[in-house]
Backbone:
């Protein structure tokens, strides 16, 4: 690990932290030194990075000496408690939690959409919510080309969005169901195997959950357009690691499916994935391990003028989290 930067990964033993390490290695990020940080219960574990086994250290206020880039994926409370110490030590923090996303002093960045916003950072750059990233990667080029007025989005979100323990609960619950054994869920309020339910994030007084509110607020900030009307319904489905979304998009003028396809074929981070004659569209299994947002099934909304529907699938651990963070680090 000679040359390059001193990088810290905070939350290194979690699902996103582990994915960050794989992405850093796969994309050959110039790492000179790697510091792995996690909670006290994970301290002492050894994690492989390339041919090197690295000890995980306990996250402390003095953990960032010499660190230049700190990738945080340890939750909002730890981000609020420790990001300032990392910045004071000279690091740029790229935070995957919701702690700083709506802070007007903190850029909220999807590199394919608003990389220039990074220039205004004061030591912290926020990684958006996974479902928001998946939506804006194809939505923004369509907005640039045709002007988006309104978006109605329904999400079908994987267990990975709630962390490694949620993924394990889905697997364990599925085994129990197949073996006709009782199983008591610990992460989710409902049985997850062979089931689905409205997103389990806290519910607001208006009846929308926090995940739905995030999609609205964050998309407007990233796309720098507070006038876009966005309405979201978020659902947790028994899938391990890729989110799917159905978008209904109203434009300021008539847009044909062919025009939308033409724009998205050239859009960064987007891959058209479909075999229309075979009624074959992207699934979570197709997107798992894939960097791009897979898009297809673009069609006219027959009930409303100037409106198209599309389907997308995105690996929540990659573009929805770890990959986006590392892309930000690459731009730094």
Residues:
């Amino acid at each position: 690990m000679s040359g390059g930067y001193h990088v810290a990964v905070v939350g290194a033993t979690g699902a996103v932290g582990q994915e960050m390490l794989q992405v850093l290695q796969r994309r050959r990020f110039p790492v000179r030194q790697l510091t792995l940080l996690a909670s006290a219960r994970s301290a002492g574990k050894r994690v492989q990075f390339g041919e090197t086994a690295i000890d995980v250290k306990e996250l402390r206020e003095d953990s960032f000496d010499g660190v230049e880039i700190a990738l945080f994926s340890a939750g909002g409370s730890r981000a609020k408690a420790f990001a300032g110490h990392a910045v004071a030590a000279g690091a740029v923090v790229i935070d995957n939690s919701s702690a700083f996303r709506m802070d007007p002093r903190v850029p909220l960045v999807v590199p394919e959409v608003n990389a220039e916003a990074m220039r205004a950072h004061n030591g912290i750059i926020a990684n958006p919510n996974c479902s928001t990233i998946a939506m804006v990667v194809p939505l923004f080029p369509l907005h640039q080309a045709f002007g988006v007025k309104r978006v109605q989005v329904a999400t079908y979100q994987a267990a990975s969005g709630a962390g490694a323990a949620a993924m394990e609960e889905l697997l364990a619950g599925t085994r129990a169901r197949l073996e006709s054994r009782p199983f008591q869920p610990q992460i989710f309020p409902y049985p997850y195997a062979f089931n689905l339910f409205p997103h389990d994030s806290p519910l607001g007084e208006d009846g929308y959950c926090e995940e739905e509110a995030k999609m609205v607020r964050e998309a407007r900030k990233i796309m720098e357009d507070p006038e876009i009307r966005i309405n979201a319904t978020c659902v947790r489905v028994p899938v391990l690691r890729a989110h799917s979304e159905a978008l209904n998009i109203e434009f300021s003028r008539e847009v044909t499916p062919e025009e939308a396809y033409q724009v998205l074929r050239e859009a960064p981070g987007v891959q058209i994935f479909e075999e229309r004659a075979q009624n074959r569209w992207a699934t979570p299994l197709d997107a798992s391990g894939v960097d791009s947002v897979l898009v297809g099934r673009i069609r006219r909304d027959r009930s409303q003028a100037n409106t198209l529907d599309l389907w997308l699938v995105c690996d929540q651990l990659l573009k929805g989290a770890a990959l986006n963070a590392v892309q930000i680090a690459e731009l730094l």
